[in-house]
Amino acid sequence: MLAQAPHPLSADQSMPHVRIHGLNKWFGAVHVLKDIDLTIRAGARIVVCGPSGSGKSTLIRCINGLEAFQKGKIEYEATSLGKNTRETAKARRQTGMVFQGFNLFPHLTVLANCTLALRRVLLKPAREAEEIAMRHLTAVRIPEKAKAYPAQLSGGQQQRVAIARALCLNPRVMLFDEPTSALDPEMIKEVLDVMIALARTGVTMVCVTHEMGFAREVADEIVFMDEGRIVEQASSKGFFSGTAHPRARLFLDTVLRH
Amino acid sequence: MGFNLDFALSTIPTIMEALGTTLLATVLSCLGASALGFTLEMIRRGGGAPGLAVRFLIDFIRSTPVLAWLYFLYFVMPFYGIRLGAMTVGILGLSLYYSGYLAEVFKAGIDAIPKGQQEAARALSLNRRDTVVFVIAPQMLRNVAAPLGNYLVSILKATPYLAILAVPEMLGRAFDIASETYRYAEPLTVAGILFLGLALIVAYGVKRVEQRLLAAGRR
Ligand SMILES: Nc1ncnc2c1ncn2[C@@H]1O[C@H](COP(=O)(O)OP(=O)(O)O)[C@@H](O)[C@H]1O
Ligand SMILES: [Mg+2]
Fold first, then answer.
1. What ipTM, to 2 d.p.?
2. Which of A201, A242, B15, B152 is 20 to 30 A off residue B98, Cα-Cα?
3. What pLDDT is attached to residue A88?
4. Residues of B in contact with A92 (CB under 8 A)
5. Residue A5 pLDDT > 50, yes or no?
6. Does ligand 1 have an atom closer than 6 angstroms to the CB of A61?
7. How many other C-beta atoms can be found within 10 angstroms of the C-beta atom of residue A255?
């Protein structure tokens, strides 16, 4: 009898999506990432925190190939992210990215923002692309704005559209770089609610954020970075129950006090 | 011998016959200069040896008089076996000359696009061509509408240079009338007024397009 390939949905939950080994990055002479080791398992919900300038954005950007790095390895399941641009492209296709500043295309409607990559990258016909996009816009609770332009939306609405746009390509890992930091306080909740709902669907996510309430609610792992290093990596429970590294403790005290 | 209004009016139909040539030269030169200028800017942006070569070429084009280009193409190229019609040379010369300026305009228009736009395009796996066509170019056009429009008017106003190649555009035709009748004031005044009218129409059209683009930006 022929061996059957396992059904993709029944994949072992502990199988890593991304494995980062000894990652080092320099901006000129500045050493911004130092010996980073991190494994992102399928279904993991990792929150990355740490003081400004500690390298969180750079790490996220290395994971989807927006930044090059000088030493170490990032493995995507079987493919390794390195100098080969085709491999980089393949790896990038497996990640969705949500930026602090939304980065929606201002000249395109909400729907066109979402369908652009579906049509040009996945080569979906227009009708199908719109159906997929509408499904994700509904999931982020903004289907009624499909025909609007980004400038007509509030920051919170724009960020939800950006999440939908990233989801359209059906990424294996969703990367968030401080998705609520540019938002007015009253809009933070609507975005976090969408992200919490997304986490419940089992999407693998790595999220840079200082929203510790969100971290407590959805993260199964907290990574604390300082000066380019991962200083502390713990389960959410362990991190918040006071066993954290002194520097992480200090950081937590300052963010929680706000 | 004063200004003869009747004579002036009588020259209008003859000069207007050349309107088509002027418009054709303007439109084709605008298209040529825009396409070439955008291509040059894309190559320059690509960097490397071609980028460096184009950077030099753009500076060279911008520091040479347009007449030099027209003379070069018309009188020197045949020496190397390349013989082109006067109109073709004229359009080519204006396209080349203004492409150097439009490359600078496009550069400013692209530089003004936030870096996050390219990053979003890359994060969505759009390839370089799609990023230019669907993300960069539309936003660039919005940024450059005003300076681009000014250069289009400049190209219109540069078409009389083609008279030196005997292209029958409006000013050349006015001079023809002048040399036949020994009366300069009337045909040249008529040609001047026609150019003014055309420039105003083009400027108005550019303004309208600009306002629409700005309105689209505010949506
Ligand atoms: N494009 C860049 N060029 C040079 N230095 C950079 C660049 N981006 C970030 N850095 C530097 O790298 C360090 C880490 O930055 P970043 O990853 O943005 O930190 P974080 O997101 O944790 O605030 C900082 O010291 C920052 O100044
Ligand atoms: Mg950052």
1. 0.87
2. B15
3. 67
4. 122-123, 125
5. no
6. no
7. 14
